[in-house]
Design goal:
By secondary structure, this protein is mostly helical. Helices cover about 55% and strands about 5% of the residues. It has 2 domains: about 210 residues, HUPs (Rossmann fold); about 100 residues, Tyrosyl-Transfer RNA Synthetase (Orthogonal Bundle). The structure holds adenosine monophosphate (AMP) and tryptophan. The site of adenosine monophosphate has 16 residues, from helix 1.
């Protein structure tokens, strides 16, 4: 059986990177996989979250899943803290994973910044909890944006080490699914930084709930260079954009990759369409496309968040269905470890 698990943190400001790198792919994959999509509230509190806002943001991510087209009948949608197996399995994995593995995690270094001593202990062991999320369901595939590749590798190592140490094939080794040209959407203001929820300036990102005027304004003021748009001759033989080209004009290729992803075009198609044009015309076309694709999702999110009872009902039911899968797997792991139960 092929099973997907993925999650998004309820930390506010859901943006185009979350949509193109993750949520849109959840919708596409739900038809081919048994799919479990989580709102990872336990992960969110690794950095401080105001309690009232955490609850609102948990509903907001749920609304984004639903508005984008994740079907709660077909898939399981729930918030992580409802299913205690995640925390329990994470503890076992804290004891399987090595400190050396954690020390290599670039996201911890980025998020902890200069004040490492003052970061929460949870932020440090975050990848062990993520491994527990995935493996509690014996998920085989994990759709994520490119920034999560290293955490996925960590989860693979945990699965292998657990199976090896305890001499039982309890966990499958999960594969990442990293889809499309926009698996890494960059900031609108600096094409070398990823678009992020935590960036203080809202002008760096397009939020899933932005209205048409806001999208137009942000794209108009997005950083570009002084050239015109390149043609398909920059591509390599396999039709991919070489890293060297992207490095030379990061903002330009970021906007083009957003266009390609939203319009479902290949690099070749998008570069052929806009070759030689100036940024003003291209930004106009991109604005129109972004408004067309995001507008309906944003307004549906708005409508859904006005009815929190319906969202809460979906999360509760999802949590019950999730626990039915996760609890037996947790039992199997505890049994392998040698914990007395029953
Ligand atoms: P997070 O906001 O960190 O909970 O991320 C939720 C999902 O969105 C993960 O699969 C990330 O890999 C993906 N994601 C976050 N930021 C970006 C980005 N700038 N570009 C592409 N994917 C992203
Ligand atoms: N760490 C992921 C992020 O920040 C969110 C996440 C938590 C996740 N648990 C997961 C993603 C399990 C995939 C699978 O984007």
């Amino acid at each position: 059986m092929k099973r997907i698990f993925s999650g998004v943190q309820p930390t506010g400001n859901l943006h185009l990177g979350n949509y193109l790198g993750a949520i849109r792919n959840f919708v596409a994959l739900q038809h081919d996989y048994d799919s479990i999509y989580c709102v990872v509230d336990l992960h969110a509190i690794t950095v401080w979250q105001d309690p009232a806002e955490l609850a609102a943001h948990t509903r907001q991510v749920t609304a984004a899943y639903l508005a984008a087209g994740v079907d709660p009948e077909r898939c399981i949608i729930f918030n992580q803290s409802r299913v205690t197996a995640h925390s329990e399995l994470a503890w076992i994995f804290n004891c399987v994973a090595r400190i050396g593995w954690l020390n290599r995690m670039t996201q911890f270094k980025e998020k902890a910044g200069k004040h490492k001593e003052n970061a929460s202990a949870g932020l440090y062991v975050y990848p062990a909890l993520m491994a527990a999320d995935i493996l509690a369901y014996k998920a085989t595939h994990v759709p994520v944006g490119e920034d999560q590749k290293q955490h996925l590798e960590f989860a693979r190592n945990v699965a292998q080490k657990f199976n090896h140490d305890y001499g039982r094939e309890v966990f499958p080794v999960p594969d990442p699914i990293i889809m499309g040209s926009a698996a890494r959407v960059m900031s609108l203001r600096d094409g070398t930084k990823k678009m992020s929820k935590s960036e203080p300036s809202d002008m760096t990102r397009i939020n899933m709930t932005d209205d048409a005027d806001t999208i137009a304004n942000k794209l108009k003021r997005a950083t570009t260079d002084t050239g015109t748009l390149p043609g398909p001759d920059v591509l390599d033989e396999s039709g991919e954009l070489p890293e060297t080209a992207r490095k030379e004009r990061p903002e330009c290729y970021n906007l083009l990759s957003i266009y390609a992803a939203l319009a479902d075009l290949s690099w070749r198609e998008v570069l052929t369409q806009f070759e030689g044009q100036g940024f003003a015309a291209f930004k106009g076309a991109l604005t129109e496309l972004a408004v067309e694709k995001l507008g309906p999702i944003g307004s549906e999110m708005q409508r859904l968040t006005n009815d929190p009872a319906e969202i809460d009902r979906i999360l509760k039911r999802g949590g019950e269905r999730a626990a039915e899968i996760a609890n037996p797997v947790l039992n199997e792991a505890m049994d392998a470890v040698g914990f007395l139960r029953g």
